[in-house]
Design a protein that fits this description.
Strand content: 15-25%
Distance between the termini: 86 Å
Largest sheet: 6 strands, parallel
GO molecular function: DNA-binding transcription factor activity; transcription cis-regulatory region binding
Number of domains: 3
Structural class: alpha/beta
Domain HTH lacI-type: 30-84
CATH architecture of the largest domain: 3-Layer(aba) Sandwich
Order of helices and strands: HHHHHHEHEHEEEHEHEHEHEHEHEE
Biased composition (Polar residues): 1-15
Radius of gyration: 27 Å
Number of helices: 14
Shape: elongated
CATH topology of the largest domain: Rossmann fold
Keywords: DNA-binding, Transcription, Transcription regulation
Protein name: Transcriptional regulator, LacI family
């Protein structure tokens, strides 16, 4: 063999086979076969080494890892997960139009990854119904599904382990993680009463367990603190809050508690449009303590639902379901807490 034939191709890394180099240059995925050929070992040894098996000697593992890095190898995580008899995959079905759901998603992804699980997320909206969302995550072999709110529970898959982040489980076999409304709402009404409010209106959310639970906590807190409780049709978005206030509030209302922060955002925009200053002319409280609530632009007093704690409990329970085949449904409760900002003076 001539000296020239032994030389690497231009741009080829030392120790990289011509085949692997050609794959790199053409953009093709580097395979375990390429690594085994370049490292002078078997595919099985490469697989064990890259998988962290203790059966591979340290010098061999280091050599294989170095070759894999030189080749630019990237593990096909999806393929390895799906090939498992019981892959470490969870599903998460939510509505990403809701800021609280976005926060639950972020916290669940982070915590599940720390536990060695992948999370497949599906969002429901007007073009994506809940049954299709569940079907999608189950097709990708999710071993358990976390649903954010009861509207994200499908009735078509009753045998799939499910964990609900919400107020009330529609089936007895579903695990439930709920954030209590009573404490945070009680703190909110106590604060408004201390600020001198006597007629407080609640801008309601869309029909469902969450809206009913928040309204019930509001009503009870108003009774406890001896202030008038009124309700106004609202919703879960900015337009709903804006239109509710523009339509006119009941006479004498001096404070608003809104179903969520997005609704409160709309209410504040309407108040400003009418020349009223939140925190001075009208006290306003939101729910969920979202990013918009903590912004300097809004500075909204809001009830924090401890999303990090709620999401971690839901992930823990989903993993427990994914790794087992039974057990009684769990019921876990997390307390809420009022975060005070400028919108309440």
């Amino acid at each position: 063999m001539s000296q020239q034939s032994k030389q690497s191709k231009p741009g080829q890394r030392t120790g990289v086979t011509p085949l692997a180099h050609d794959r790199q240059m053409s953009g093709q995925r580097v395979t375990l076969d390429d690594i085994a050929l370049a490292a002078g070992t078997s595919i099985a040894t490469v697989s064990r080494a890259l998988g962290g098996s203790p059966r591979v000697a340290a010098p061999t593992r280091e050599r294989i890892e170095k070759v894999a890095e030189q080749l630019g190898y990237r593990a096909n995580i999806a393929a390895s997960l799906l090939a498992s008899a019981r892959p470490q995959i969870l599903g998460l079905v939510c509505s990403l139009s809701q800021e609280l759901h976005v926060r639950y998603r972020a916290e669940a992804l982070r915590y599940a990854e720390d536990r060695g699980f992948r999370v497949i997320v599906e969002s429901i909206d007007t073009s994506r119904d809940v049954d299709r969302a569940w079907e999608s995550v189950l097709q990708l072999r999710a071993q358990a599904v976390i649903a954010v709110d009861s509207t994200c529970i499908s009735t078509r898959f009753p045998n799939t382990p499910a964990v609900l982040i919400g107020q009330r489980a529609p089936r007895r076999d579903i695990d439930l993680v709920t954030s209590s409304n009573e404490r945070g709402m009680g703190q909110a009404i106590a604060l408004l009463a201390q600020r001198g409010s006597r007629r407080i209106a609640f801008l309601e959310g869309p029909p469902g367990p969450s809206a009913r639970a928040r309204k019930a906590a509001f009503t009870q807190a108003c009774i406890t603190h001896e202030v008038d409780a009124l309700t106004v049709p609202g919703g879960d978005n900015v337009d709903a809050g804006f239109l509710a206030v523009r339509a006119g509030l009941p006479a004498g209302v001096d404070a608003l508690v809104c179903y969520n922060d997005q609704c409160a955002h709309g209410a504040i925009l309407a108040l400003l449009g009418d020349g009223l200053v939140p925190g001075r002319d009208m006290l306003v409280v939101g729910c969920d303590n979202s990013a918009i609530a903590s912004s300097r632009a809004l500075s909204l007093t809001s009830i924090d639902r401890a999303p990090s704690r709620v999401a971690s409990l839901a992930v823990d329970q989903a993993i427990a379901r994914a790794l087992s085949d039974g057990g009684s449904p769990a019921r876990q409760r997390v307390e809420t807490e009022l975060v005070v900002r400028a919108s309440t003076g």
